[in-house]
Amino acid sequence: MGGVVGKDESPGGWIPETKLEAKMVQAMQRKAAVGTSMRSFNSVILKFPKIDESLRNCKAIFEQFDSDSNGAIDPQELKHCFDKLEITYSEEEISDLFEACDINENMGMKFNEFIVLLCLVYLLKEDPSATQAKSRMGLPDLEATFETLVNAFVFLDKNKDGCVSKSEMVEAINETTSGERSSGRIGMKRFEEMDWDKNGMVTFKEFLFAFTRWVGIDELEDEEDAEEKV
């Protein structure tokens, strides 16, 4: 075997695939070190409606920067968005973020991809060297929602390594639904929905994409696309 350990066998040895992913994990480790006030997965679920409402209100921001109104934000429109929100990123960083969030690789970011990108920007702005990080994006209501999502992830990340493993997800669900035999299966199902690349570890980005599906943000887009075609 040559002594090589697979990703699934040793999540602790999991290697981030991109510089951006590594930064995300480091930022989340800093958050995890501080801790979260969330005490159960139920408390995360109870916040879904409020988070859902806040994210849907983000549609106006999306439409504002989708200057050609084609339902997607291209790299040029994203640069304009960053300028407007006074987010200082280099060309390379903007390009990395765009690539990371344009999951359909169609050179255009749909609404749910845009939300994930903004939340990642919020997380990455939270580093110790960034002064006034809270007000940097100029979207206070949205930032409170992003903070809730960060806290939810920190709650799941029991060993504070910046990622969530299958056993951590199952443990979080089990804490909530003690005594229910199906709880382990629920945890596994939720984890599988999040672990897109099937490497046994969930990053904050994967968690966010799964979250937009759970609250139906991506369905909202499909409905609107269908209405436009009618």
TrEMBL record:
The keyword Calcium applies. Residues 53-88, 144-179, 182-217 form the EF-hand domain. GO terms for molecular function: calcium ion binding. The keyword Calcium applies. It holds the Pfam family EF-hand_7. Keywords: Calcium. This is EF-hand domain-containing protein. It comes from Papaver nudicaule.
